[in-house]
Automatic annotation (TrEMBL):
Coiled coil: none
InterPro entries: MoCF_Sase_C, MOCOS_middle, Pyrv_Knase-like_insert_dom_sf
Protein name (Swiss-Prot/TrEMBL): MOSC domain-containing protein
Stretches that traverse the bilayer: none
GO molecular function annotations of the record: catalytic activity; molybdenum ion binding; pyridoxal phosphate binding
Superkingdom: Bacteria
MOSC domain residues: 140-288
Length: 301
């Protein structure tokens, strides 16, 4: 979306023409996922730290052998909701159980063990037997809830100096309303933004314009676009029911126009933060630097 500051464009060159346009990009949604794979929590504002939005993906589930357990193989986990009680505390609920679970990181022992988060070995903090039992009942098998504690460390692959928690690959995931609208224009099923589990959603741009953004500023915080986000089967879960969406959507449709050779099907952008600060819904989004976008072939009819 944009507005003209002047209607008199005669005798102006292309550069001055664009200087007369104010692009109205803004932050429309913020979300965190305290435990990896559970439902997101919509926020009005959030602190941006180097490792992600405050409270985002600081817990994860693993098998007794330390292997990751997510909604990809255990869809029922995606129906867990979280409610913030106070600093350091979450109340978790699931429709299959009448008992909620309280997570309070101040009560965890300083007991750490190695787990595997995709390609990374992470020294993660044990939580409690109560949490393990609660999640095991929902998962249908023995699992352990692990916390990203003060002695835990993990870094991004392309920027080994940038810390992160239990997010898949990078601390921040950005999507845009316009790109979702373009997907839904030709998709046989209606796709919700929640299926992509973003932290940051932008409005006001054109569809997939985010491919060309290299650096952006939201409020007082600058972000760098590291790479397009490659999507997986997790996106095919209905966020309200945890059931698979018919015909493998949205991956089937995205595969026709968002297939990146040798990498996979993409939607959204993986970001890192270049400084810390607070961002708010409605904050202006400024594009500071552009880049050449990846090339995609549109095979939709």
């Amino acid at each position: 979306m944009f507005v003209f500051l002047s209607n008199n464009l005669s005798n102006t060159n292309l550069t001055s023409y664009y200087e007369r346009i104010v692009f109205l990009y803004s932050l429309s949604e913020l979300a965190i996922y305290p435990v990896k794979s559970i439902q997101g929590i919509a926020l009005q504002s959030s602190r941006v730290d180097d490792a992600g939005l405050c409270g985002d993906r600081r817990y994860t589930l693993v098998t007794p052998n330390g292997e990751l357990v997510t909604g990809r193989t255990h869809p029922q986990l995606t129906l867990i909701t979280a409610k913030a009680l106070e600093d350091h505390c979450w109340q978790l609920s699931h429709p299959s159980t009448q008992t909620s679970l309280i997570l309070d990181l101040t009560k965890y022992a300083q007991e750490y063990s190695e787990i595997v988060v995709w390609e990374n070995t992470v020294n993660a903090q044990r939580t409690s037997d109560e949490a393990d039992a609660w999640f095991s009942k929902i998962a249908g098998e023995s699992v352990h809830l692990m916390h990203f504690g003060e002695h835990s460390q993990r870094f991004t692959k392309r920027r080994p100096d940038v810390p992160m928690g239990f997010a898949d690959g990078y601390p921040f995931l950005l999507t845009t309303e316009a790109s979702l609208s373009e997907l839904n224009r030709t998709c046989a099923q209606h796709i919700q933004m929640a299926q992509f589990r973003p932290n940051i959603v932008i409005r006001g741009n054109s569809a997939f314009e985010e491919d060309r953004w290299k650096r952006i500023r939201i409020g007082d915080v600058e972000f760098e676009n590291i790479k397009p986000c490659v999507r997986c089967i997790f996106t095919t879960l209905n966020p309200q029911t945890a059931e698979r969406i018919p015909k493998g959507e949205p991956l089937k449709t995205l595969g026709k126009f968002r297939l990146l050779d040798g990498k996979g099907i993409t939607f959204g952008a993986n970001l890192i933060a270049l400084n810390t600060g607070i961002i708010h819904i409605g904050d202006e989004v400024e594009i500071l630097e552009y880049q050449e976008a990846e090339k995609y072939q549109d095979r939709r009819k």
